[in-house]
């Protein structure tokens, strides 16, 4: 039976890509579902104020996630590159260093945040009505948030060590256990918001245990070894992982920017309409993130092994799949916007009409968004950090903000919904121009 290295080096490029793509897509979709499970249970059991309290505390989770992605992707890219070079010892040093970095930074930040947790809660938007719920949820997150970062980074490294299916299984079990434990802690034990937080971290801990079984496999190369921490190694990890960190930050800017812009031109109805759109977007966005994540282990390995043709075949295939998927979602949004909105409830006419308009305009951005995510990951993985950072920053921290400022005064809500599609188009065009100038999609002569 071929080991993972033999499959990567001699297996069909298409089959290898699918082997990593499907678990990555499933894992990302489950992550998006996991995020809303707490809200669904708390909303039904404890009401709107408690739900607001959770939403205020959730950015703490986002910070931990951003840190784990920053170091996880930065470390895993180097790890797979070292495997491609057949430098197993160096790969294990990178793995050990990355795990300790994530845990150290997360625990240090959690201690500082716990000391100042009350001012932090009010800074995040708590008031006298929501503060009890915010504190109940946040206290658990700060005490056990390192479990979340450990699951994230282990999942990344297990996937890079040739076991994407185990990473997917761990996320499936985490999602299922989160549902079961939320029901038990909220509806049977009646533990309130604190119970929901405990359910989440307990489910994540179970996911960590499942991922840890990879250490006992004969094919596993994930081992903890002694190492020396150097400034250069820190710089390289943080440099490679920076686009992933900025991407996570960009999601927060996107939500905040759209909420402010739509409220200015359409009031509460506009915010409600965007909420409907954002639920759909969060699922599709995770699919595109999954497409990007699927190529990271492959491109890193091929680059280390100097398999240039397989590297380029993989990125070409991933780009085609992303564009085709984006076209599919664009068509769905264009012809089935009304049905998509109705999935989320029976809304008043003004909210419904705005949401339908939003879906039809916003979904055009998917024609370019998947391609942009795939190429950002490709640039990040192939040491083109400047271009990867440009893609990330330009999408949601430059062009989106500019268009949210200049379009709404002329086009109203349509201008708000158009900001992301136009931004994605401009970024995709810049990538295409850069790729052509560097012959990135041109296959070498066999």
Describe this structure in words.
GO terms for molecular function: antiporter activity; xenobiotic transmembrane transporter activity. Belongs to the multi antimicrobial extrusion (MATE) (TC 2.A.66.1) family. MepA subfamily. Its main location: membrane. By secondary structure, the chain is mostly helical. It has two domains: 18-229, no CATH class; 267-438, no CATH class. It is 85% helix and 0% strand. It has 16 helices and no strands. It has helices at residues 4-10, 13-46, 48-57, 59-84, 88-115, 117-123, 131-160, 164-188, 192-212, 231-304, 308-343, 349-362, 366-381, 385-406, 408-411, 413-438. Helix 11 packs antiparallel against helix 12 (349-362). The two termini are 27 Å apart. The mean pLDDT is 87.
The gist of it:
It contains 16 helices and no strands. The protein is an all-alpha fold. It is found in: Cell membrane.
List its traits:
MdtK-like; MATE_MepA-like; xenobiotic transmembrane transporter activity; globular; transmembrane helix; membrane
Distance between the termini: 27 Å
Fraction in helix: over 70%
What string, H for helix and E for strand, traces the elements in order? HHHHHHHHHHHHHHHH
* Secondary structure: number of strands: 0
In DSSP terms (H or I, runs of 4 or more residues), the helix count works out at: 16
Taking all Cα atoms into account, the compactness measure Rg is 22 Å
Count of all domains: 2
Strand fraction band? Answer: under 5%
Identify the overall geometry: globular
What do the pLDDT scores average to?
87
Largest sheet: none
Q: Name the structural class.
A: mainly alpha
Uncertain parts:
none
GO cellular component, one term: plasma membrane
Family: Belongs to the multi antimicrobial extrusion (MATE) (TC 2.A.66.1) family. MepA subfamily.
Protein name: Multidrug export protein MepA
InterPro entries: MATE_fam, MATE_MepA-like, MATE_MepA_subfamily, MdtK-like
């Amino acid at each position: 039976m071929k080991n993972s290295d033999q499959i990567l080096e001699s297996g069909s490029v298409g089959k290898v890509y699918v082997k990593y793509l499907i678990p990555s897509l499933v894992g990302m979709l489950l992550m998006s579902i996991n995020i809303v499970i707490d809200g669904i249970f708390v909303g039904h059991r404890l009401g709107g104020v408690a739900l607001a309290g959770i939403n205020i505390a959730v950015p703490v989770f986002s910070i931990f996630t951003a840190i784990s992605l920053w170091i996880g992707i930065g470390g895993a890219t180097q790890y797979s590159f070292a495997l491609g070079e057949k430098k197993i010892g160096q790969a294990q040093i990178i793995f050990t260093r990355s795990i300790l970095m994530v845990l150290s930074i997360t625990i240090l930040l959690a201690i500082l945040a716990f000391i100042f947790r009350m001012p932090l809660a009010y800074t995040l938007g708590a008031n006298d009505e929501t503060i009890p719920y915010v504190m109940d949820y946040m206290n658990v997150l700060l005490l056990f948030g390192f479990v979340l970062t450990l699951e994230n980074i282990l999942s990344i490294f297990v996937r890079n060590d040739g076991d994407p299916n185990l990473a997917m299984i761990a996320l499936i079990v985490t999602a299922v256990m989160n549902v079961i434990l939320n029901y038990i802690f909220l509806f049977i034990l009646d533990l309130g918001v604190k119970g929901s937080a405990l359910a989440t971290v307990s489910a994540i801990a179970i996911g960590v245990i499942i991922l840890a079984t990879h250490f006992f496999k004969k094919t596993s190369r994930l081992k903890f070894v002694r190492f020396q921490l150097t400034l250069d190694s820190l710089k390289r990890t943080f440099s490679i992982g920076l686009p992933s960190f900025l991407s996570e930050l960009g999601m927060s800017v996107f939500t905040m920017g759209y909420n402010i812009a739509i409220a200015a031109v359409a009031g509460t109805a506009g915010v409600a309409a965007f909420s409907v759109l954002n639920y759909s977007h969060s699922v599709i966005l995770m699919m595109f993130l999954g497409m990007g994540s699927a190529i990271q282990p492959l491109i890193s390995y091929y680059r280390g092994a100097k398999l240039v043709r397989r590297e380029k075949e993989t990125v070409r295939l991933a780009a085609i799949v992303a564009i085709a998927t984006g076209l599919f979602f664009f068509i769905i949004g264009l012809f089935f916007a009304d049905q998509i909105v109705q999935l989320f409830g029976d809304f008043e006419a003004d909210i419904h009409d705005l949401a339908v308009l939003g879906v039809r305009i916003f979904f055009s951005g998917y024609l370019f968004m998947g391609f942009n995510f795939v190429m950002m990951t490709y640039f990040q993985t192939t040491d083109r950090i400047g271009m990867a950072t440009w893609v990330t920053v330009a999408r949601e921290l430059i062009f989106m903000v500019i268009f949210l400022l200049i379009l709404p005064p002329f086009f109203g809500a349509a201008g708000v919904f158009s900001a992301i599609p136009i931004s994605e188009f401009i970024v995709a065009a810049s990538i295409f121009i850069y790729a052509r100038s560097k012959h990135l999609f041109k296959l070498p002569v066999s």
